[in-house]
Design a protein that fits this description.
Belongs to the glutamate 5-kinase family. The protein has about 375 residues and is of the alpha/beta class. It is about 35% helix and about 15% strand. An 8-stranded mixed β-sheet has the order 3-4-2-1-5-7-8-6, sandwiched between helices. It has a 5-stranded mixed β-sheet with strand order 10-9-11-12-13. The chain binds adenosine-5'-diphosphate (ADP) and the ligand N[C@@H](CCC(=O)OP(=O)(O)O)C(=O)O.
Length: about 375
C-alpha cells in the first residue's frame, strides 16, 4: 500500500492524448466517461468533500484531427494549433457533460510556459485554480496551444502537469498513459519488464525510454523528467488503473520523491523558469552559494553575459565549470560590470547605500548542480 498516495487530499491527474482519443482522431467518449467515473468517485468519496482533483488533459490536437479531416497528427505548428483550437472546445464540452452526471462542474484553464515562468502570471494562475477548487469545480488544464510558439512550447503535457502540481501544492501526481507502467524497454518489444519503484536515477540505469505512441508526444522521457521535478510522489500507469493508483495500490510505476520538498519559490525557480543571462562566479562564490547557502555578492562575480533586467532569473556558472545555481538578480545586466569584484562596503561608500544590496539574495537562489561545479580551488 502506498500510503502517501492513499492519504493524498489534493492530486493532479494528467491523461495523455492516447488515453482520451481514438485512432481516427475523435474523442473516445467511453474512455472519458470511465475516467470521469473514477475521478468523480475519488473526488467525492461517499459524498464527503475534502478530496480535490486538478485534471491536466491532453488530446486537443488529436481530437481536432477527425473534424478537420486530417489523417494523422499534423507536423506543422499552424495545423497543430488549428486542430487544438477545434479539439479543445470539443474536449471541454465532453468533460462538462461527463462530470455533470455527478453534479460536478468543470472550468477550463489554459496555460503557457510563459505563464509558468512569469511570477505574476504564476501567482494569478494559482489564485484562479485555488478559487475553482474552493467552488468545488474540477479544473481542466491544458497548454494554451493556439498562442504558444515552437520555441516556448511545452509540447507534451507531462512537464506542465508537474508544474501544476507545484502550483497547487498537490500531494501527488498521477500520470496516465496508454502503457500501464514504465518498462525496462519499449513494452511493444519482447523482454521488457515493469519497473515498480523508482527511488532515484540509479533505478533508471539501462532503461530504454523510447519514443511516443500514435498521437502522444515525448514518450517516456518527458514522463520520467516530470516525475523528477514534481517534488511529490508520482504514479505512472494507464487510465484503466487510475482508480487503483488513487487508492494507493501497487500498480504502474511509483516514483518516490527525492528528499524534502523544496519551497514553492525554489521549485518555481528551478523548474518553471529559464535563465535570461549568465553570471560567472569565482571559486569562493561557488563555494558560498553551493555549500554554505549564502547570498551572491558582487565581489565573487567575474563575468556577465546576456541582456537581463533586475528581477529576471539568471544562471550562475563556475568560472570554467558548469551550471551552479539559478537566482533572481537584483540588478540590470548593464549595471553589473562596474560592481564586479567590489566589496559591498566599498560600493556603498563610493556609489551610495542602495548599492550595498547583494546581487542575488539567498532566498531567491536555488542550487542546480553539486559536483560538476566544483572548481579546483573550491
Ligand atoms: N521504457 C518504456 N516503458 C514504457 N513505455 C515506453 C517505453 N519506451 C517507449 N514507450 C512508449 O511510450 C508510449 C507513451 O508515450 P506517449 O505516446 O507520449 O504517451 P501519452 O500520450 O500518454 O503522453 C507508450 O505507448 C510506449 O509504447
Ligand atoms: N496540448 C497538447 C498536448 C500534446 C500531447 O500530445 O501531449 P501528450 O499526449 O500528453 O504527450 C494537446 O492537447 O493536444
Amino acid at each position: 500500500m502506498r500510503t502517501a498516495i492513499a492519504g493524498a487530499r489534493r492530486v493532479v491527474v494528467k491523461a495523455g492524448s492516447s488515453s482520451l482519443t481514438t485512432a481516427g482522431g475523435a474523442i473516445d467518449a467511453a474512455r472519458i466517461d470511465a475516467l470521469v467515473d473514477v475521478l468523480a468517485g475519488w473526488r467525492q468519496p461517499d459524498g464527503a468533500k475534502g478530496h480535490e482533483v486538478v485534471f491536466v488533459s491532453s488530446g486537443a490536437i488529436a481530437a481536432g484531427m477527425g473534424p478537420l479531416g486530417l489523417p494523422a497528427r499534423p507536423r506543422d505548428l499552424a495545423a497543430q494549433q488549428a486542430a487544438a483550437s477545434v479539439g479543445q472546445g470539443l474536449l471541454v464540452a465532453r468533460y462538462t457533460s461527463s462530470f455533470a452526471r455527478y453534479d460536478l462542474g468543470v472550468g477550463q484553464v489554459l496555460l503557457t510556459a510563459d505563464d509558468m515562468m512569469r511570477r505574476s502570471h504564476h501567482r494569478n494562475a494559482r489564485r484562479t485554480l485555488e478559487q475553482l477548487l474552493a467552488f468545488g469545480i474540477v479544473p481542466i488544464v491544458n497548454e494554451n496551444d493556439t498562442v504558444a510558439t515552437d520555441e516556448i512550447r511545452f509540447g507534451d503535457n507531462d512537464r506542465l502537469a508537474a508544474l501544476v502540481a507545484h502550483l497547487v501544492r498537490a500531494d501527488a501526481l498521477i500520470l496516465l498513459s496508454d502503457v500501464d507502467a514504465l518498462y525496462t524497454g519499449d513494452p511493444r518489444l519482447p523482454g521488457a519488464r515493469r519497473i515498480e519503484n523508482v527511488h532515484g536515477p540509479a533505478d533508471l540505469e539501462g532503461v530504454r525510454l523510447g519514443g511516443s505512441g500514435r498521437v502522444g508526444t515525448g514518450g517516456m522521457v518527458t514522463k520520467v523528467e516530470a516525475a523528477r521535478i514534481a517534488g511529490v510522489p508520482v504514479v505512472l500507469t494507464d487510465a484503466a488503473s487510475a482508480g487503483a493508483a488513487l487508492a494507493g495500490e501497487d500498480v504502474g510505476t511509483y516514483f518516490h520523491p527525492a528528499g524534502a520538498r523544496p519551497s514553492a519559490r525554489r521549485q518555481w525557480l528551478a523548474h518553471a523558469t529559464t535563465g535570461q543571462g549568465r553570471l560567472r562566479l569565482d571559486p569562493g562564490a561557488v563555494e558560498a552559494v553551493l555549500r554554505r547557502g549564502k547570498s551572491l555578492l558582487p565581489a565573487g562575480i567575474t563575468g556577465v553575459e546576456g541582456d537581463f533586467s533586475a528581477g529576471d532569473p539568471v544562471d550562475l556558472y563556475a568560472e570554467q565549470g558548469g551550471l551552479v545555481a539559478r537566482g533572481l538578480v537584483n540588478y540590470d545586466a548593464g549595471e553589473i560590470p562596474e560592481l564586479m569584484g567590489r566589496s559591498t562596503r566599498w560600493l556603498a561608500r563610493e556609489l551610495g547605500p542602495e548599492y550595498e544590496r547583494e546581487i542575488i539574495h539567498r532566498d531567491d537562489l536555488v542550487v542546480l548542480a553539486v559536483t560538476e561545479a566544483r572548481t579546483p580551488a573550491g
